Amino acid sequence: MRNYKVMLVNLNSLPGLGFSPVFPVGANYIRSLLLEMGAEVSFIDFVRRPDWLESLDFADGEFDCIAFSIRNLDSMELDGEYLVDDYLKMTNLIINRGKQRNPHARILLGGSALSAYPEGLAEVFPYDAAITGDTEESLFQFIRNHIRDMQGERHIAIAGACPERFAFEIRYEPDLVRAYMAIGAGQIGIPTRCGGRCPMQCIYCSYGLLDRDTNYTRSLEHLRSEILHLYEIGVRELFFTDSIINISPGHARNLCHLLIELNLPGLEWTAYARPTVNEEFLRLAALSGCKALSVSFDTFSPEMLTSLRKGFSVQSAGRFIELCRKYEVNLIGLLLFGGPEETELTVRETCEFANRYLEPGQLFFSFGIRVSPGSGLQTLLGQPGDELLAPHFLGFDERIFDYVLTHLDGRFVSMNLLLKISKWRAAYKQMKPKATAHPRHTMVCPEL
Ligand code: B12
Ligand code: SF4
Fold first, then answer.
1. How far, in Å, from the CA of 189 to the mean position of ligand 1?
2. Would you say the CB of residue 19 lies under 6 angstroms from ligand 1?
3. Are 227 and 269 part of one and the same domain?
4. Residue 366 Cβ contacting ligand 1 at under 6 Å
5. Cα-to-centroid distance, 300 and ligand 1 (Å)
6. Are residues 251 and 294 in the same domain?
């Protein structure tokens, strides 16, 4: 009798994807989960082993399953690359090579890009099973069924049981963590699950497909062990990967208390947060080593806050920024121009607010909203989900680029921003328009 064997490939570790690399939080989670279930796992990551890109000799081992983790489909930016063809090329090479020795191996797909674009990816990728949503139970059933189907031919088993969702410790391999730190991806992600699904309803957001009904929180004991282990490896920056860390103020508070109690010199953390006037959270965040809270304000125009369904007001955003200043919590404020009904007036309102409340270094920009399956925008435009695999953006008035540069203080306009704007604008100009079911809104998409 031998253990069920999985080769798990992190496709997000391919070179040249066009965005800064991050530690493979989701793929590593699946590796830990498989080990917990008693499977054997070969984890294939090309950041750790760039030589494997050429040799592919990792695919010559013995496997029952070849699993692919797909984190990003694209950068969601106007000038982003279409990556599906790169992923497909590598996937096919690995499958062909792996199947030479293991003709019965099953192909499994998973990852946030798959959850976010389930129909589109399912049409183009070769696979036997694709798992979105409740990973634990579905993965366990997939393996059990495969073992059952192979009975008679082999003696294969999995020794462990299926853990409850999120109820196990994530194992971080020191050499994998260090490989990412060595290329500058020093913020290592920990899935904190501080309260489950984001209750807000931003119009472009498809996190409902990713987080579904998950009101789970991860236990502080597991988080404690993982933080201590990462610290021992040499990690000094953590990214808590909740969609929004302060969904459940209680769990976020407990996490801050845990960090304060651990008192690990030099350890900092970053996370996505939503504007809040909860002073205790901000005070504890500062005390527990919060390096920055990343906040998708998107706009400071009252009309656009409504149009984007942001769920907070200009006044509460202002109060939140003041509180961050009071408790010395640094902000990474994200602005997104080109939403439904954006005009020069709404751009001016946003820029004037930013000029008044924010400092350079606290503001990051994006233009153009990618239409994601499962989002309110998809419903508004009446667009079928499978057609959105290739990047489609909401059409907007191209002069929005000029309006931003006109109304934003010069202190925010760096050479880097000017360069990015000219790239985004050039990419936008090259896209072709596409009609939607909505009487006023169009989309644009690149020629592929
Ligand atoms: C935190 C985060 C970031 C942080 C990461 C910080 C860090 N150091 O880790 C930062 C801000 C840096 C970031 C950057 C980017 N991000 Co981001 N990010 C997230 C977020 C909020 C959480 C990701 C995470 O780690 N989750 C925790 C892990 C455990 O979950 P997971 O990866 O989904 O894995 C689960 C399942 O997918 C599954 N799974 C994973 N692999 C496999 C494999 C198999 C075989 C199976 C069965 C299951 C499975 O198991 C896990 C448990 O259920 C997600 C949105 C979300 N709510 O999920 C977006 C998200 C992943 N990001 C996204 C994007 C686009 C980006 C950027 C490209 C943005 C940009 N333009 O720069 C970059 C890319 C960076 C890179 N190199 O990959 C998109 C990806 C989808 C897409 N459209 O392509 C997402 C989904 C958000 C969205 N808008 O839809 N991101
Ligand atoms: S706050 Fe963030 S996660 Fe929540 S709905 Fe809006 S974009 Fe999505």
1. 10
2. yes
3. yes
4. no
5. 26
6. yes
| Cβ of 116 less than 6 Å from ligand 2 | no
Query: Helix (H, G, I), strand (E, B), or coil: what is residue 169?
Result: coil
Query: How far, in Å, CA of 118 to CA of 206, rounded?
Result: 12
Phi, psi of 29 (to 5 degrees): -60, -45
Measured from the CA of 69, which atom of ligand 1 is nearest?
43
pTM for the whole thing?
A: 0.96
Backbone angles phi, psi at 130, to 5 degrees: -130, 130
Residue with CA nearest ligand 1 atom 32: 26
Ligand nearest to the CA of 44: 1
**Does the Cβ of 296 fall within 6 Å of ligand 2?**
yes
Ligand 2 in reach of 205 Cβ (< 6 A): yes
pLDDT tens string 113-159: 999 999 889 899 999 999 987 789 999 999 999 999 987 666 898 88
Q: Same structural domain for residues 396 and 267?
A: yes
Per-residue b/e over 351-389, b at no fewer than 16 CB within 10 Å?
bebbeebbeeebbebbbbbbbbbbbbbbebbebebeebb
Q: How many whole angstroms separate alpha carbon 131 and alpha carbon 56?
A: 25
Ligand 2, atom 8, lies closest to the CA of 205
- C-beta of residue 157 within 8 angstroms of C-beta of residue 37: no
Asked whether the beta carbons of 50 and 155 are under 8 A apart, the reply is no
Q: How far is the CA of 70 from the centre of ligand 1 (A)?
A: 9
235 has a pLDDT exceeding 90: yes
What residue owns the CA closest to ligand 1's atom 74?
19
Cβ 421 vs Cβ 412: under 8 Å: no
Between the CA of 12 and the centroid of ligand 1 the distance, in Å, is 10
Q: What is the DSSP secondary structure assignment for residue 146, as one 8-state letter?
A: H
Q: Which atom of ligand 1 is nearest to the CA of 21?
A: 77
CB distance 143 to ligand 2 below 6 Å: no
> 52 and 44 in contact (C-beta within 8 Å)?
yes
CA atoms of 61 and 57, how far apart (whole Å): 8
The domain of 51 spans: 2-157
Those residues whose C-beta lies under 8 Å from the C-beta of residue 69, and which sit 6 or more positions away, are 8, 9, 10, 11, 12, 24, 26, 27, 30, 110, 111
157, 177, 196 — which closes off a domain?
157
What pLDDT was estimated at residue 196?
64
**What average pLDDT score do residues 424-432 get?**
97
